[in-house]
Amino acid sequence: MRAAADRDNQALASWVGSVAMDVAEEVLVPTPVNAKAVVRELIEAHKQLRRVGTNHNQITKVWNSDGRVPDAQMEAVYRALLIAIQRVEAATLQLMRERKERE
User: Fold this and answer.
1) Among candidate residues 98, 87, 94, 78, the one with its CA nearest the CA of residue 46
2) pLDDT number for residue 27
3) Which one, out of 41, 68, 78, 81, has a CA that is 20 to 30 A from the CA of 50?
């Protein structure tokens, strides 16, 4: 806690009070340590989905201009999309299991 208070430039008691108020007002939702890895996985999967979306948009632009998109390019984008979707699904299911255990 001391490190977090120092990082926020606050006295420890002030930082604890601030965090307690944020939790009470549901501005901040505490996350169990084991859930943080799952949240990191969702963030990484989100980044991957954004990259795939960019690739998809580039392919669509080519497709609309001359109608020819290399099969290897299409296959790579859809393979990346499938992997990203599977990562999001696995992380979401894990979060749901952990939430159910806490209730």
Assistant:
1) 87
2) 78
3) 68
| Host H or E run for residue 12 | helix 12-24
Alpha carbon of residue 31 to chain centroid: 14
| Per-residue pLDDT tens digits for 33-47 | 667 777 787 888 888
Cβ within 8 Å of residue 97, ≥6 positions away: none
What's the token pair of residue 48?
A: 């991957």
**CA dihedral for 73, 74, 75, 81, sign (positive or negative):** positive
What would the two tokens of residue 34 be? 């084991």
Count CB-CB contacts under 10 A for residue 22.
13
